[in-house]
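Q: Got a minute? One more chain.
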Amino acid sequence: MNILFIEDDAMNRRVVRDMLDVAGAQMAEADRAEEGLRRIDDEEFDVILVDLRMPGMDGFEAIERIRARGDAKGELPIIVVTADTAPDLTERCKRLGADEVLFKPVAMDALFEAIGRIVASKPGEGDIILD
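A: Always. Here it is, folded:
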């Protein structure tokens, strides 16, 4: 499984990378939303993890731009990973097209469960396994 994490904080990226390494997943990184969108153009990913609060383009706009694509990459599963605890945040993220919302600090089991739910819900993706 190839996962892109769009997150401006290097420590948060490292923590998630360590979790995904345990499962044998590959994680690419982007420290800005603009870079993440370029990587989506150029590379193949199974899941996108995105923070919401970043300098420049925020995660909300990144999600909107991903969903606005006219190709299969516009339907990539998106998991929001955020420290934002606004009362309507989960609903707002889902309205924009996020599949899941996780709150920092992210627990390994919560991350794996979210990825598992997404993979199980996507037709033809049953062969992707994350232990």
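A: Residues 89 and 101 are 9 Å apart (CA to CA).
Q: Perfect, thanks.
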